[in-house]
């Protein structure tokens, strides 16, 4: 069976770095993880094994348009029906589009990502396209489908009492036949009764629910003007989402509400920064005890490289804490690993132990910028580049492996 000897493993739910005499796997399962002494410092490098990374907010459909929204506002770039993203995606044939998505999933694998939660536009067709790309690459695409068009006009949204039109209901059923769940751009895209219908249908079919909230103040303001309630309040009340993305302008009352709900938040500060938006209150969300995940958002806005997101998020949080000790870098790494467990369950553990899935990444800490680290968790979070990823495995399947790396075989 394949194995790695004399490495460092970030093991267990604490992701604690320990020396490891032998890390072995057979088929999809870790069969040996011989835990040695704790190890925070290196003198002359090592192979470092970490859990496979989860990117919990992507739109890989628009990865074919890198930096296409540069110079555009959030509304001009990303809102239906006339935003740049939707206009450009509608021009592509499946044959033109699919190779872009496959190539970007491969890029995710070579940067240590094993799975992603994708907010997939273009209705059932879009979900099917991503499913095909996932099957071609072995990256696990958790697909959260979205309506192709906007089911309501402005007058219906303002009146806020129309149920989901029959055509949209059929589209929703068709999305659910392919996708793992449902997502929408904002709570302001649908009426309250439509949200209740979608909640019930997705619950009946055992699907996930996801929504963007509080990306900017406009999300809250439009919702308040139409319904008297902010978008986060309505999301929790009407849609019961499994994950809530952005939270960049969440205020103290909203953070308390989210904490009381027990829901998971997803942050993507690099994408927020790139749009000139406020940065999420990472410190306040962590201190409120909210389960947090990390994402990279639109492919056209941001590279789907979680290593860069970990670095940015850690430094943002550090600045907000204003403290030499907080946060622990591993608290940030948890957002891309173990914190996925309450949302996805099943084979998704985000941690390494004997008997758990062989879903891991091998990092080359022999590189000059890593080999003498004085704080291994901090270096994993802030200094590892895509070139330092030697291999990425999901359930024992090799998603990426550098030529210079080969596991031993016994
Ligand atoms: Zn999104």
Q: Which key terms come to mind for this protein?
A:
single chain; 410 residues; alpha/beta; Urease, subunit C, domain 1; TIM Barrel; 2 domains; 9-stranded parallel sheet; 8-stranded mixed sheet; binds zinc ion
Short description:
With 410 residues, this protein is of the alpha/beta class. It has helices spanning 74-78, 84-91, 94-110, 123-137, 154-159, 166-178, 192-204, 217-227, 231-239, 252-261, 269-274, 282-287, 306-321, 329-334, 341-344, 376-382, and strands spanning 2-11, 16-26, 29-38, 47-51, 53-59, 113-120, 140-145, 181-184, 208-213, 243-246, 264-267, 292-294, 297-298, 360-364, 389-394, 397-401, 408-409.
Topology:
Elements: E1 2-11, E2 16-26, E3 29-38, E4 47-51, E5 53-59, H1 74-78, H2 84-91, H3 94-110, E6 113-120, H4 123-137, E7 140-145, H5 154-159, H6 166-178, E8 181-184, H7 192-204, E9 208-213, H8 217-227, H9 231-239, E10 243-246, H10 252-261, E11 264-267, H11 269-274, H12 282-287, E12 292-294, E13 297-298, H13 306-321, H14 329-334, H15 341-344, E14 360-364, H16 376-382, E15 389-394, E16 397-401, E17 408-409
Parallel strand pairs: 1-4, 5-6, 5-13, 6-7, 7-8, 8-9, 9-10, 10-11, 11-12
Antiparallel strand pairs: 1-2, 1-17, 2-3, 4-14, 14-15, 15-16
Helix pairs in contact: 3-4, 4-6, 7-9
Bound molecules: zinc ion.
Residues 57, 59, 119, 212, 245, 297 line the site of zinc ion.
């Amino acid at each position: 069976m394949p194995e790695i000897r004399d490495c460092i493993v970030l093991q267990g739910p604490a992701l604690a770095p320990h020396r490891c005499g032998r890390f072995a796997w057979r088929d999809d399962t870790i069969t040996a993880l011989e835990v040695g002494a704790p190890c925070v410092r290196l003198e002359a490098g090592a192979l470092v094994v970490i859990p496979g990374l989860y990117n919990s907010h992507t739109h890989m459909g628009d990865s074919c348009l890198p930096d296409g929204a540069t110079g555009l506002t959030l509304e001009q770039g990303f809102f239906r029906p006339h935003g740049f993203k939707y206009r450009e995606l509608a021009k592509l044939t499946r044959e033109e589009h699919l190779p872009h998505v496959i190539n970007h999933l491969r890029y995710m694998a070579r940067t240590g990502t094993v799975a992603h939660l994708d907010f997939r536009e273009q209705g059932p067709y879009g979900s099917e396209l991503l499913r095909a790309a996932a099957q071609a690459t072995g990256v696990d695409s958790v697909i959260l489908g979205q309506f192709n068009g906007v089911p309501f006009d402005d007058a219906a949204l303002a009146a806020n009492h129309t149920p989901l039109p029959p055509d949209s209901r059929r589209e929703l059923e068709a999305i659910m036949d392919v996708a793992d769940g449902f997502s929408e751009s904002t709570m302001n895209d649908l009426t309250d009764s439509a949200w209740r219908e979608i909640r019930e249908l997705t619950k009946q079919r055992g699907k996930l629910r996801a929504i963007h909230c509080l990306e900017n103040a406009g999300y809250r303001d439009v919702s308040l003007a139409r319904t008297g309630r902010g978008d986060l309040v309505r999301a929790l009340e009407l849609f019961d989402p499994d994950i809530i993305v952005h939270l960049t302008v969440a205020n103290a009352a909203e953070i308390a509400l989210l904490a009381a709900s027990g829901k998971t938040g997803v942050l993507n500060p690099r994408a927020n920064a790139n749009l000139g938006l406020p940065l999420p209150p990472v410190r306040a969300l962590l201190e409120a005890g909210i389960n947090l995940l990390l994402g990279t958002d639109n492919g056209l806005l941001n590279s789907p490289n979680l290593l860069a997101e970990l670095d940015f998020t850690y430094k943002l949080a550090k600045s907000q804490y204003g403290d030499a000790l907080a946060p622990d870098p591993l608290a940030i790494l948890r957002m891309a690993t173990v914190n996925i467990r309450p949302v996805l369950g099943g084979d998704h553990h985000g941690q390494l132990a004997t008997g758990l899935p062989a879903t891991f990444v091998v990092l080359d800490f022999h590189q000059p910028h890593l080999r003498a680290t004085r704080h291994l968790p901090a270096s994993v979070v802030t200094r590892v580049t895509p070139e330092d990823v030697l291999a990425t495995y999901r359930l024992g399947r090799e998603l990426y492996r550098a030529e210079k790396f080969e596991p031993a075989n016994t």
